[in-house]
């Protein structure tokens, strides 16, 4: 028979353990051009990646147990993806964390790169490009929406729950922002983070 002491210990252990599987840090890298103007550096994901190949993103990735903070994760990912020395990354701070549409806890980190030369990890990054910060300020994004729906699986016990709909049902709707800069389309989570950044620096 299970006891209340066993229940207490199991719950206490769950509270102590830190689950990194649904936490990610995203870096907003500012970089100066030849006119000393601030730009934001973006990556184009490698075509060989299984998840969103060819999409435009900011550097970042899942937090790991070896990372002491979201800033540690952001720096580690910058080094892995762009081949930058850590001393060439200047950290400004963090933006408020938020939950993405797919349930990830996102920690945006802002900083500046003091190096113009990169050694791209071609397994992850096809290329990089920059967009002037002033361009984002002067060009608001197109706003649309993404609907999230659910549908019962084929083995769902409809005999026990006869009122459950069998077809797709709308669950929620999320705002989606889309920027079109030259030949690049910046949207989804990346555009959302840019919006959060712009709101923070303009408030």
UniProtKB/TrEMBL annotation:
Cofactor: Mg(2+); Mn(2+)
InterPro entries: CoAse (IPR045121), NUDIX_hydrolase-like_dom_sf (IPR015797), NUDIX_hydrolase_dom (IPR000086)
Superkingdom classification of source: Bacteria
Record-linked SUPFAM superfamilies: Nudix
Pfam entry (one): NUDIX
Domain (Nudix hydrolase): residue spans on this chain: 21-154
Keyword set, alphabetical order: Hydrolase, Magnesium, Manganese, Metal-binding
A molecular-function term among this protein's GO annotations: coenzyme A diphosphatase activity
Protein name from the UniProt record: 8-oxo-dGTP pyrophosphatase MutT (NUDIX family)
């Amino acid at each position: 028979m299970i006891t209340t002491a066993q229940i207490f210990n199991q719950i206490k252990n769950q509270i102590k353990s830190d689950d990194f599987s649904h936490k990610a840090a995203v870096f907003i890298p500012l970089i100066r051009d030849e006119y000393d103007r601030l730009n934001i550096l973006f990556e184009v994901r490698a075509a060989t990646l299984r998840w969103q190949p060819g999409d435009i993103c900011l550097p970042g990735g899942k937090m790991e147990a070896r990372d002491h903070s979201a800033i540690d994760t952001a720096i580690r990912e910058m080094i892995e993806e762009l081949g930058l020395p850590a001393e060439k990354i200047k950290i400004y701070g963090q933006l408020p964390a938020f939950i993405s549409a797919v349930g990830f806890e996102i920690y945006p980190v802002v900083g500046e790169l003091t190096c113009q030369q990169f050694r791209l990890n071609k397994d992850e990054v096809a290329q990089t490009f920059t967009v002037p910060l002033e361009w984002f300020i002067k060009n608001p994004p197109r706003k649309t929406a993404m609907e999230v729906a659910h549908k019962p699986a084929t083995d769902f016990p409809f005999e026990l729950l006869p009122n459950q709909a069998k077809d797709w049902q709308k669950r929620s709707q999320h705002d989606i922002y889309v920027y079109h800069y030259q030949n690049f389309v910046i949207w989804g989570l990346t555009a959302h983070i840019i919006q959060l950044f712009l709101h923070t620096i303009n408030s």
